[in-house]
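Predict the 3D structure for this chain.
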Amino acid sequence: MTRWGALALIVGCGHAAPPAAPVVTATHQSPPDAAIDAPLDEDLDALAVRAVKMYQDWQHALDEANGDCAAAATKVNALADANADVIAANARIQRAGHDKIVQLRAALEPHAAELDASAKAIVQSPTMAACAHDPAFARAVDRIGGEL
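Done. Predicted structure below.
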């Protein structure tokens, strides 16, 4: 995947898709009050919410770096660390194929305005423009895109 592939997958909501099939989880072995946490690639609504937050945090990190490439690389790396589960879930969905990608796009659709605004701000960020050719920053962006 290219450096911007994850951005395109998250932002490219496209056409409406059929709702994802419900995830059935056996609970007979757990106490009744125990929470059952599905992996993010199986809980697409949770993944969508986390993706929105990650993109908003990415936007803020670039704004806060204010063109300082070393600071931006540090902030984006920290963001990749904090969202490793989101990045991994996105990669698993991409490998799962077309149907799973369509289901993710459907889960993202209600968040399209927020994602579009953050993605536009990221791409048009002065820090992104200033640091695009900085090797450390490029590696950090690759990480958040799931390439490393």
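The longest helix spans residues 44-65.
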